[in-house]
């Protein structure tokens, strides 16, 4: 399966990366990582971090960069290149523990024609 | 997340402990609680209807309930419990975020809902918060949860963000001026 994983630079997005790599290895998926910035960090920096993590996990995956609006960029890339699935970090927790979806996850859930996996 | 809090402050909340008769004629006592109250709350959450959960809380497994309660019934949080006799039937909490504001949530057992217990829990908790110098309180609520949204509006919360799956609501509590 062709899987596109969105990584926005937050801690939870790197946890999702580690977990998705493990899944891809077990299932034999082809994984592509799409980097965007939702944390205010520079794209190049997040890209570098993803590269380091992938090296650390001894896993090879192409890294793409999404400039502009991350949600629509992710869905457009997934549609254009016929990915089977989009994976994303599945939200953060509020101070008292409620699950909160960020605007990127909400946009992808409502707009992607393919399956979406929220990694928790 | 930092909501845009309303400019106008709301006042006039009572402080716990309080006693009242609910809409079904049951005698209810609202008390402040700390970690000593965790066992009673744990029993309440074991009985909690999973359908009434909100955004993943309360958890379902007993061990996860215990862990969650440890995190919200903590030193820097305020918690009130509604008791019917010895039984905890409702719980409301204020938990600090990283900006000096507090997140509020409330849970009431199914058979005690719609009897004004939730309203009294929230009002008492806000009164206690106010007397502790808490000024900004926010919450998120699923947009289809009409009874909860109505309750929060009645108490004085305003919707501050309606662009996402959950509504974000906030209130500014009037502060007592102790300087003069």
What does this structure look like?
The complex is a heterodimer of chains A (120) and B (180). Chain A has one domain: HUPs (Rossmann fold), CATH 3.40.50.620. Helix content of chain A is 42%, strand content 24%. In chain A, 34% of the residues are buried. The mean pLDDT of chain A is 95. In chain A, β1 (2-7), α1 and β2 (30-35) form a beta-alpha-beta unit. Chain A has four helices and seven strands; from the N terminus they run βαβαβαβββαβ. Chain B has one domain: Gcn5-related N-acetyltransferase (GNAT) (Aminopeptidase, 3-Layer(aba) Sandwich), CATH 3.40.630. Chain B is 25% helix and 31% strand. Chain B is built from four helices and nine strands. The radius of gyration of chain B is 16 Å and the shape is globular. Chains A and B meet through β6 of A and α2 and β5 of B.
Q: Give me the count of strands of chain A.
A: 7
Characterize the quaternary organization of these chains: heterodimer
Instruction: Tell me the radius of gyration of chain A.
Output: 13 Å
Average pLDDT across residues of chain A? Answer: 95
> Strand pairing plus helix content of chain A: what structural class?
alpha/beta
| Annotated CATH architecture of chain A | 3-Layer(aba) Sandwich
Which architecture of chain B would the CATH scheme give at its second level?
A: 3-Layer(aba) Sandwich
User: What's the CATH C level of chain A?
Assistant: Alpha Beta
- The computed structural class of chain B is alpha+beta
């Amino acid at each position: 399966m062709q899987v596109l994983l969105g990584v926005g630079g937050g801690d939870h997005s790197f946890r999702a990366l580690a977990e998705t790599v493990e899944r891809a290895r077990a299932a034999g998926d082809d994984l592509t990582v799409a980097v965007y910035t939702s944390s205010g960090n520079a794209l190049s920096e997040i890209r570098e971090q993803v590269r380091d993590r992938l090296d650390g996990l001894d896993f090879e995956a192409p890294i793409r960069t999404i400039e502009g609006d991350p949600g629509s960029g992710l869905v457009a890339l997934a549609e254009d290149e016929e990915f089977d699935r989009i994976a994303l970090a599945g939200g953060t927790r509020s101070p008292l523990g409620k699950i909160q979806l960020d605007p990127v996850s909400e946009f992808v859930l409502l707009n992607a024609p393919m399956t979406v996996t929220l990694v928790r | 997340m930092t909501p845009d809090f309303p400019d106008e402050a709301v006042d006039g909340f009572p402080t716990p402990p309080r006693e009242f008769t609910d809409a079904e004629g049951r005698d209810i006592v609202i008390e402040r609680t700390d970690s000593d109250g965790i066992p009673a709350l744990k029993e309440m959450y074991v009985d909690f209807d999973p359908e009434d959960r909100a955004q993943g809380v309360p958890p379902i497994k007993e061990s996860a309930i215990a862990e969650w309660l440890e995190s919200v019934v903590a030193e820097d949080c305020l918690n009130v419990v509604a008791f019917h006799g010895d039984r905890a039937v409702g719980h409301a909490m204020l938990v600090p975020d990283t900006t000096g504001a507090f997140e509020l949530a409330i849970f009431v057992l199914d058979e005690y809902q719609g009897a004004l217990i939730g309203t009294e829990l929230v009002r008492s908790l806000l009164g206690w918060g106010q007397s502790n110098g808490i000024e900004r309180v926010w919450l998120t609520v699923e947009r289809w949860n009409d009874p909860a949204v109505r309750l929060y509006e009645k108490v004085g919360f305003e919707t501050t963000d309606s662009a996402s799956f959950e509504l974000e609501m906030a209130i500014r509590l009037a502060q007592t001026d102790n300087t003069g």
